[in-house]
């Protein structure tokens, strides 16, 4: 078995917790280099995981001939540049979500991957619903809900608003671009069940207008919403409502409900519930063993490189879809009107 040599650009929380150890656990895979935001942080990660080489810059790491594949764990502001460089240097690419800063960057990344069909290009997928996706898809396909009428998705943390905290990178448009909280991650999951929208209307609110930059200490304007409501007209004929918030104290919501002409399907609290016409209440629906799925991003990436399977979670064309949605939401907020899709 030929060894796959991997370089890591950006060793953030998910990369350290998931990508690096899970790749190292796969036979015939070696993580040979790392470049984080600083030399010191790069050396800490290298020491923690026994990675032999630390590079000063991400360009040096990608251009070096000691790797076959690149894992990008940076914030979205570097996703496009690192991906284009990796593909140009003949390297497979696993890029952290969200795909890019905006739709234009996502399309550039997709075009580059299409020009290099021999290279695997994968986005880290939305993970929260992997366990439920196949069951929900099967129920809809079998007609459990009948004609789809409406979809509601709500995600809120349990904390009250923190007006004094430093600016998180997700609140910094220089790092996150058009991405808003966990909106894109939840949309990616929802579209697995019910497909894409024909139009999007969004309203967002930022309640804390200025925050202190965690790196420089300088006060900066916050432009990323802390609460957003989105209404969609879906291609499947249903209406959809999505609410994402970080300011609703004690809400602690992470749930989705699909309403149909003949039945209702609800996902929440790690379970799936359902009821059909004539039932009095929702009841738990058992997930079949063959429908159960878990996180296997790193395994899928390596298997795709070895020609054993194709990337399903998440190829670049799907990433472009959720970045198109993200840009439509941003345009809707700015223009105060519904935005038709595709853009």
Question: What are the salient characteristics of this protein?
Answer:
single chain, 343 residues, alpha/beta, 9-stranded mixed beta sheet, 6-stranded parallel beta sheet, 10 helices, 26% strand, globular
Notes on the protein architecture:
- The protein has 343 residues and is an alpha/beta fold.
- It has ten helices and 17 strands.
- The chain has helices spanning 13-24, 39-49, 58-63, 79-88, 103-114, 130-141, 173-176, 183-194, 297-305, 316-335, and strands spanning 4-9, 29-35, 53-54, 69-72, 92-95, 121-123, 148-156, 197-205, 210-212, 219-221, 227-234, 239-245, 253-260, 263-268, 271-276, 283-284, 339-340.
- It has a nine-stranded mixed beta sheet with strand order 16-15-14-13-7-12-11-8-17.
- β15 (271-276) and β16 form a beta hairpin.
- It is globular and about 65 Å long.
- The termini are far apart.
Produce the secondary structure layout.
Elements: E1 4-9, H1 13-24, E2 29-35, H2 39-49, E3 53-54, H3 58-63, E4 69-72, H4 79-88, E5 92-95, H5 103-114, E6 121-123, H6 130-141, E7 148-156, H7 173-176, H8 183-194, E8 197-205, E9 210-212, E10 219-221, E11 227-234, E12 239-245, E13 253-260, E14 263-268, E15 271-276, E16 283-284, H9 297-305, H10 316-335, E17 339-340
Parallel strand pairs: 1-2, 1-4, 2-3, 4-5, 5-6, 7-12
Antiparallel strand pairs: 7-13, 8-11, 8-17, 9-10, 11-12, 13-14, 14-15, 15-16
């Amino acid at each position: 078995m030929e060894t796959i040599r991997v370089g890591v650009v950006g060793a953030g929380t998910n990369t350290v917790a998931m990508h690096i150890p899970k790749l190292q656990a796969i036979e015939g895979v070696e993580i040979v280099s790392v470049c984080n935001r600083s030399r010191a942080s790069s050396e800490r990660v290298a020491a923690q995981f026994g990675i032999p080489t630390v590079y000063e810059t991400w360009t040096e790491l990608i251009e070096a001939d000691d790797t076959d594949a690149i894992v990008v764990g940076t914030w979205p502001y570097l996703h496009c540049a690192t991906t284009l460089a990796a593909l140009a240097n003949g390297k497979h690419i696993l890029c952290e979500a969200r795909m890019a800063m905006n739709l234009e960057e996502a399309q550039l990344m997709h075009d580059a991957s299409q020009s290099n069909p021999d290279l695997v290009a994968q986005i880290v997928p939305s993970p929260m619903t992997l366990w439920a996706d196949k069951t929900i898809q099967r129920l809809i396909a079998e007609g459990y809900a009948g004609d789809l009428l409406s979809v509601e998705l709500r995600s809120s943390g349990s904390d009250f608003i923190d007006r004094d905290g430093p600016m998180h990178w997700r609140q910094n448009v220089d790092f996150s671009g058009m991405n808003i909280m966990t909106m894109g991650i939840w949309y990616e999951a929802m579209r697995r069940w019910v497909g894409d929208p024909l139009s999007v209307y969004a309203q967002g609110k930022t309640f804390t207008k200025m925050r202190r930059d965690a790196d420089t200490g300088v006060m900066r304007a916050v432009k990323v919403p802390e609460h957003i409501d989105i209404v969609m007209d879906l291609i499947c004929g249903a209406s959809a409502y999505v609410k994402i918030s970080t300011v609703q104290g004690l809400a602690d919501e992470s749930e989705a409900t699909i309403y149909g002409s003949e039945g209702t399907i609800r996902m929440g609290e790690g379970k799936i519930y359902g009821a059909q016409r004539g039932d009095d209440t929702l009841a738990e629906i058992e997930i079949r063993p063959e429908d159960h799925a878990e996180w296997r991003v790193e395994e899928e990436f390596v298997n795709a490189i070895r020609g054993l399977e194709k990337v399903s979670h998440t190829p670049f064309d799907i990433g472009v879809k959720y970045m198109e949605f993200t840009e439509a939401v941003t345009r809707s907020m700015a223009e105060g009107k519904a935005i038709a899709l595709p853009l």
